[in-house]
Design a protein that fits this description.
With 251 residues, the chain is mostly helical. It contains 13 helices and two strands. Strands 1-2 form a two-stranded antiparallel sheet. Helix 9 runs parallel beside helix 11. The radius of gyration is 20 Å and the shape is globular. 31% of the residues are buried.
Amino acid sequence: MNKKNQNFFFLCNTMEDLNMKFFIENKTIEKEIEHILNKLKLRMNGETSSQMEALGIHYRLNFGVSQMHLNEVAQTISKNSELAERLWYRETRETMLLALKIVPVDKMTRQRCSEWITLINNVELIEQASKLLFSKLPYCLKLVEELIEDESVYSFALACYTLGWHLQLSPAVSQAYLDKITSAIFMANPSKEYLLHKAKGFLARKYFRAMHSSHFAIDEYVTQAEKADKPLLQKVALDIKMERDFVLENQ
């Protein structure tokens, strides 16, 4: 390897990975990543990893570390954009979740955001990314609009979760705008994927909590879901109705 090539290293463990990401060598960051990985390996849990795999939560590599222990590790790491970027592209469950916890929101450009989203392909990442990062972005609502136009179920689900968390964290959204985007979400994407319906259910519950009112598109979605011959979809509808009724009765 010549000297020029030695100034670069490949962060992922195998060359077969499709999402190749190269970084300029930074020995300080590399040393910190090694230190973080050593901490994570001490908390490895193969049983948890196997259970997640059985539930359809797939990662390139999964140590099975609990969220509690991940939070403990995150508290020892300073907010750092470059470190977060390198952790994210390892495509290991624990490093990706840590990246979401330590990346400075003000350093998350639209371009970087779009690039990170391409690696989000399971419900855990959707839930965590929307809560910890995307719902806090200054361009959050524009991002949601873009995501609901994407054909990917993961992107659509991410849009629902991101908007839902945004309503809880920053409910200062105009009623007219929110009604418009909520209609677009609940009247679009009739996919039979359970993940999509779970995401819509999450958004519906956050909508009721934030707005203290019902919405015609959500009500129509519930009506259709109740008629579906699918127990999981019917459960989503029931959860939405229970939340709506509770909020309206106690406002």
